[in-house]
From TrEMBL:
Keywords: Methyltransferase, Transferase
CDD domains: AdoMet_MTases (cd02440)
Protein source organism: Myceligenerans crystallogenes
Domain of life: Bacteria
Keyword Methyltransferase part of the UniProt annotation: yes
Alphabetized NCBIfam families for the sequence: 16S rRNA (guanine(966)-N(2))-methyltransferase RsmD
Protein name: 16S rRNA (Guanine(966)-N(2))-methyltransferase RsmD
Pfam families the UniProt entry points to: Cons_hypoth95
UniProt keyword NAD, yes or no: no
Amino acid sequence: MRIVAGALGGRTLVVPTQGTRPTSDRVREAIFSRLAHLDVLDGTRVLDLYAGSGALGLEAASRGAQHVTLVDSARVAVDAARKNVAALGLAAVVSVTAGPVERYTAALAAAPPLSGALDLVFLDPPYDLSDDDLSGVLADLAAPGVLAPGAVVVVERSARSAEPAWPAGLEPFGDKTYGETRVHYAEPIEPA
């Protein structure tokens, strides 16, 4: 696995030996091509949930993100993400948080970040994560003050999974299937 493009393009990543399903280079390139078209990469605050090796968040850092937070609860994933951050020299830009995503997003919803709302959020949960658990995380992200106006939420799921149940405050604006993977895009809206 490698960083696809940007300042660190071509650099290899450590991948956990078990318990994760890394996003392929092809899917990451497609996601970042769309994000570049939407002009949401340079100078952004990024949250990578269920981060695994951190490939999505690290790709965002390589392409100009201002700050990236990687969150995962699996020890092997957190260790791999920390090794990648160190090897790529990104400690000033990327932080790694060990713990359940649900606890992290609940804390965000209760007290939105003082340092600025998020511009880009990746969710690449295990395919067996329940729809209810995913809905809870998305509802936390839709809480006032968590997402900046014009933010983008990217959810990666199995192509066989139903579309996420988008909470009030998040509206889908597209999806694309790549083999066994479907990528969904949503943006914050003012509740009616």
